[in-house]
Amino acid sequence: MPHVAVDDKLREECGVLGIFARGLDVVRLGYFGLFALQHRGQESAGLAVSAGEGIALHKGLGLVSEAFNESHIAALAATNPHIALGHVRYSTAGPSDLDNSQPLYDSGDYDQGDGSPSRTIPLALAHNGNLVGMERLKAELAAQGAVFGTTSDSELILVLLRQYLTADLKEALIMALNKVRGAYSLVLCTNNELIGVRDPQGFRPLCLGRIGDGYILASESAAIEALGGELWRDVEPGEMVVIDDTGVHFSRFAEAKPSSCIFEYVYFARNDSIIDGQNVYEARVALGRRLAEEQPVIADLVISVPDSGTPAAIGYAACSQLPYVEGLVKNRYVGRTFIQPGQALRELKVRLKFTPNPSVVRGKRIIIIDDSIVRGTTMKLLVSTLRQAGASEIHVRVSCPPYIAPCHFGIDTPSTVELVATRYDTEGIRRMIGADSLGYLSKEGMLKVLAGGQRQFCLGCFTGEYPLPLPHEERAEARRAEEDWGDVRG
Ligand code: 5GP
Ligand code: MG
């Protein structure tokens, strides 16, 4: 059924993985690689594999451990493949059904357009990021008869590729990418090639590693390390990497305009990943140190909201010469739940997830560090449970600036009105969460820590200014151009 995407509804953060390695068990490597990327998406998981003829695929809903059982793995492994392509998906906004899970697959019979017999190029594609302003193109393609089987924006790339596939695959891909805008770290495969692509802004990460005589493409280097491979380098913004039996071939399909997501360093990525040359853990510790310099407070202890707040808390404690202690115990099994969104259940989930350790916090003046405040749900609850546990003062420090605007480039964000920093100033948020004091890291401080070397960032969630125009801005621009034209004619 043709489906026209509505931009605001289809945002997701995901993890992608590709392996090309003869002589290795790429199915099991792919499966374990998805475990290493599980933090990037918990709603569905999938693996596509090829042994040179056709592509076999398995996808399932839920965690990797839920989506796959031993017989799925055995069935894929039975084909003895040397190419594997994997995806984990996170989307609280779009429907989380199997149709929208990835890798997307196209069995692909292509008319070569020159009267010669059609050839078959099976394709599978895994996408992390979010395309923007694609409604018109999608509607045009649908009007021309293209059939969209999913509501995922990623399918647009596959549909465009199919349209251009009378040309060489690489050329067709470049033509397809020239038609789309937004965030895309893509890994795709045919039955004899594995291809990695990172959009010109490099919004989302993508890196390349070696394993045995083969290669791995992954959203994060942590997945390459976990598989016993070795990080080679990041795929650069605007770069395409083609891996086949002749080796690795790099090319540039667009000029690089680097503007990578700063929130990957704040929250999303794993601590042990290296993104664009920067180790995420070290970045987070440094953000915490900077936060201590900018927002000092007299207290007895520093605690964190585990796990993502922990490196910043370690940095804050070291810089302020206070002990870092484990004041909250995290139940690591509550990560993903089947409860429906909604404020009451969200609060219950936070309660289940974090429990204060009363002996540690009783009678103490506490500094609690988190990486970010989004809705404020987590911190409001933690402040009240820490008070119940006997903390005498609670000072909240956050290792990024106030989160004031939605992400349009791959992170699922609540609507603007749900972002607490759009409704209150810092004093208002302090009152709302019930803390004795509240301090955020400044934007300047964050950039000072992270913007070393060549790195340039998208700061959209902290500024509301984005490196690419959003669809409504483009429409307004087009209207203005039309009006100007009217003036000239008039
Ligand atoms: P809040 O409770 O204020 O809405 O969210 C803040 C908490 O959620 C912080 O502990 C932060 O680590 C975490 N967080 C920040 N961004 C995201 C996200 O995109 N997804 C999820 N699941 N958690 C997030
Ligand atoms: Mg957190």
Notes on the protein architecture:
β2 and β3 (about 55-60) form a beta hairpin. This protein is of the alpha+beta class and about 500 residues long. The radius of gyration is 24 Å and the shape is globular. The protein folds into two domains: about 10-260, Glutamine Phosphoribosylpyrophosphate, subunit 1, domain 1, CATH 3.60.20.10; about 280-490, Rossmann fold (3-Layer(aba) Sandwich). The longest helix is centred in the last third of the chain and has 19 residues, at about 470-490. The two termini are about 45 Å apart. The model is unreliable at about 1-10 and about 485-490 (pLDDT under 50). α5 (about 155-165) packs across α6 (about 170-180). It binds guanosine-5'-monophosphate and magnesium ion (MG). Guanosine-5'-monophosphate binds near residues 267 and 378. Magnesium ion (MG) binds near residues 308, 309, 370 and 371.
Number of strands: 25
Number of domains: 2
- The CATH architecture of the largest domain can be named as 4-Layer Sandwich
Strand order of the largest sheet: 3-2-4-1-12-11-13
Cα(first) to Cα(last) distance is 45 Å
CATH class of the largest domain: Alpha Beta
Proportion of residues in helical segments: 25-40%
Largest β-sheet summary? 7 strands, antiparallel
CATH topology of the largest domain: Glutamine Phosphoribosylpyrophosphate, subunit 1, domain 1
CATH homologous superfamily identity of the largest domain: Aminohydrolase, N-terminal nucleophile (Ntn) domain
Q: What is the general shape?
A: globular
In terms of DSSP E residues, the strand content is: 15-25%
Small molecules in complex? guanosine-5'-monophosphate, magnesium ion
What integer value in Å does the Rg equal?
Answer: 24 Å
Tally of helical segments:
18
Low-confidence stretches: 1-11, 485-490
Mean pLDDT: 90
